[in-house]
Amino acid sequence: MLSALLIMTGIALVLGAALGYAAIRFKVEGDPLVEKIDAILPQTQCGQCSYPGCKPYAEAIAKGEADINQCPPGGEEGIRKLADLLGREFKPLSEEHGVEKPKSVALIDEQTCIGCTLCIQACPVDAIVGAAKQMHTVVEPLCTGCELCLAPCPVDCITMVQIPDTVQTWKWKYPVIELRKSA
Amino acid sequence: MIARLFNFHGGVKPDAHKNESANAPIQPAPMPSRLVVPLRQSTRATARCIVSPGQHVLKGERIGDPEGTLGTAVHAPTSGTVVEFGLHPLAHPSGLNTRCVVIEPDGEDRWVERHPFDYHTATREQALAQLRDCGIVGLGGATFPSHVKLGRGSGIDTLILNGAECEPWITCDDRLMRERAADILAGASILRELIGARRLVVGIEDNKPEAIAAMQAAAGGIEGDVAVVAVPSLYPAGGEKQLIRVLTGVEIPYGKLGAEFGVQCFNVGTAHAVYRALAHGEPLISRVLTLTGNVSRPGNYEVLIGTPISHLLALCAPKPDTDRTLMGGPMMGFALPRLDVPVVKGTNCIISASPTLFPPPQPEQPCIRCGECARACPAELQPFELYWFSRALNFGKAQEYNLFDCIECGCCSYVCPSHIPLVDYYRFAKSEIWAREREKSAADQARDRFEFRNYRQEREKEEKAAKLAAKAAETRAKMADKGAAEEAPANADADPKKALIAAALARAKAQKEAAPVRNTEALSPETEKEIAEIDARRIKAALIDPATPAGDTPSERSPESTS
Amino acid sequence: MIHSPYIRKPASVQRVMLNVLLALTPGIAAYVWQIGAGILVNLAIASVTAVAAEVLMLSLRRRPVMLAATDLSAIVTAWLIALAFPSIVPWWLTVFAVLVAIVAVKHLYGGLGQNPFNPAMAAYCTMIVAYPSLMSQWPAAGTVSFDTQLQLILGGLREIDAVTGATALDALRTGLRGDANVGTLLQTAPFGLFGGRGWEWIAGGYLLGGLFLLLTRTITWHLPTGFLAGLALTSGVLWLFHPDQFASPMFHLASGGAMLAAFFIVTDPVSGATTPRGKLIFAAGIGLIAYLIRAFGAYPEGIAFAVLLMNICVPLIDMKTQPAVFGHRGGRQS
Known about the structure:
The structure holds three protein chains of three kinds. Chain B is of the alpha/beta class. Among the domains of chain B are: 161 residues, NADH-ubiquinone oxidoreductase 51kDa subunit (Rossmann fold), CATH 3.40.50; 64 residues, no CATH class; 75 residues, no CATH class; 47 residues, no CATH class. In chain B, the strands form four sheets. Chain B has a six-stranded mixed β-sheet. In chain B, strands 2-8-7-4 form a four-stranded antiparallel β-sheet, with no helix packed on it. Chain B has a four-stranded parallel β-sheet with strand order 11-10-9-12, sandwiched between helices. Chain B is elongated. The C terminus of chain B is likely disordered. Chain C has 16 helices and two strands. The termini of chain C are far apart. Chains in contact: A-B, A-C, B-C.
């Protein structure tokens, strides 16, 4: 009886020491969770999640302040990845934060633009070039499609244009499984 | 000399179907009424259009300038008028549009002035530039720019000429070797010189004895170490990596160029085009292709780039039960989404397909892991594992199992007893991975730019503040000169606004000092006396501090009180 | 849209399974000749049950029934069960076993291609645990008439001891547990030239069928070789040291289910290892474990348990034995 107790206590001590050592030895530096969440977010910086950018949203998710379904550009796939990463249940995109749209870029109608620079100030990724009283234009490869430039424009000369498939970006489709189809 | 041949793992032996067209000599295809020349003629690069509609061009005149490192020039295939520069569908599984120059031939077929290029006197760079400007790309199908492939011109021992033509039905290289062996070998010896290789090895599948004989006969006229080698007919022996392995035993992994391993491989058609480009100054404006399949008149034709496929089909007369038209061979080609697409430099074969020749696939059954695909895979992959991972969208695992070493040769799908379209899964997974990588790099860029913008806004704010502070400090310094410095608050540095206000007050005070109170000046002695008396009374009444000089106004408050 | 390749080799799952069934026929013929035609009744019962279970499960799982029910994979499982079981087990035992194999081991895991365990061997293990006495009563060669066999299978005739004898493996095991030695035991009734009397002919039939499978490239050499080598080597080592206590490798190869297993059971592609090296390890592991159970375990035959144990190891074996990919191996470049 006594020896059993001693053995059990001994084992508890040894394991406890090992765990304690491991906790110190393999301590994770920094807060990689925020980085990991941020890596999943699409970096559109659109603020639709109600946070001022993707990083703040990532921080909010990490702290448990925000839910994982507030990012419309990330879409369902993004939510799935976040759910996987955080070990949470998948939930559909929250409607109050917007809907998933095909990827688009902003296009300034250069005839209408009055050169007010308001859109330049609104762009979160500095993808609009121009100067006061000069026509502005969107640098297409840099545009994330956040739509933040639409509202400030006093003459409504900015529209969102869906990016067309090109031979370079065209994707092979998922092969149709005959079994499923005929079932 | 080649001491022995090596073999590669796997491979399949589908019915060759070469006899249909192998005995038809190369004929020039008749001129179509319109040529649609895509500016995208080499992998990943589109040329820049340098002609405008209405302009008259001569045969061989440049219409597209090379752009980027992988760019090659594009030329007018015949003389005529440019009628349009716009988007037209490309011969590609997607059927998407690309920029094309549309030329209406004038029927004269008049050449631009051509100059043979003396590559003996020219530098290597000039010769490579000539190849680029003549639009020479790999004619085996991949359309990789030849001048890039020729590389730095050192460290390569063996130049391999690929005449294997392992895909069923295709005979264009076979005919080219039979009819133009000397030109091909002349081109090959130019390539050998440019690449600095010691020996030249031509690999031809042993099901083409006439081509082997013709090439061997022509090889006698070439100096140096030349060998024409018959390789066993086993698909995909004509795959570049497989042929290099068979002839030299060297294995080139995915993502590496042959140059790193001392070998480089060119298609026989490319060698022929190189010869025309350097010896005759002719840019690449036509190629030989095979028209075959379910047709009444199979044949091999020299076709101008930009000729619509529908125009060519009239030559071979497809039979009524033709249901699709394939570009390329049946193992790696694709069904054309439409027939008005033009011939490009990579087009080696047009096959009319019928349900009898190419039966629709049988219904897919579950994978039983029988391993047939692994035994057939020339890249020595485990195709069924890649299939499971791709199907489950587990792309990371698929890459771990070397998905990108897959050459999409189709052997696994060919042998699969469960009729699973395995290659479709790999194509899907690869394009999905590429798309994700593009998205990721776009996201990374957006993150960087967003962070930089935030940093910039922060910095601008700080700069503004610093400017204010500097201004305040400047003012204070001025005041200090006037002995008012001690009045500046101690915390002015930390609070530029306060400092500014303080400075403003100081200024006001200075102004006041500069503009003295009028009624204290030029007083009469009586009045002064009166004031002195009043002050004395005040002191007596202890109303004011005697130290305070008389006449000081209440504005003389300490600056602290303003805060 | 259909994509390349546009040509396919004429191959199908049916053809693979048909090859396996064809390859089993020499063994079955020898069985009928040596033991009696009762096995044919069992094969028929097993086949009918298997197809019925397959159709039932496919429709319950809402899968296309016709294609999958005609792929012959269920028949292969059924035949292997019938051949692995004593040919005089009552009909309900065969039905039960086939249901376990098809319903539980195959379809509950996702159907053809998805089952981690060999269905026939899982059914065998279930039955030998559930009905140990029925599963160890084998007809002795040439002693039981077809009528008696039929009665044993279909009727409730259970005067077992009168008509059955122990198998060679069983006799060897019980004999050695007593104080007999191998030399004297081999002179007794159940033993023939190499293995069990009569059974050695059946083993020969399986070997013939196995060679057919190798010739038609239905199976690769790795699995049978690995298994037979694993069995022969382990039994050989012990036999060399104690020929009185342990039977020879020849005896072990020719007895019990060794030949059936070598060419028809360890070669099941779905639940087995797939890489060349993996196949060797997998099959040799089965041979080793099967021998250990035969020599030291509680059952006279251990192949079924060995197969299941090695099935569990398949993902690990496959992962650790991935062959080098073209261009990625060091040293082989010349």
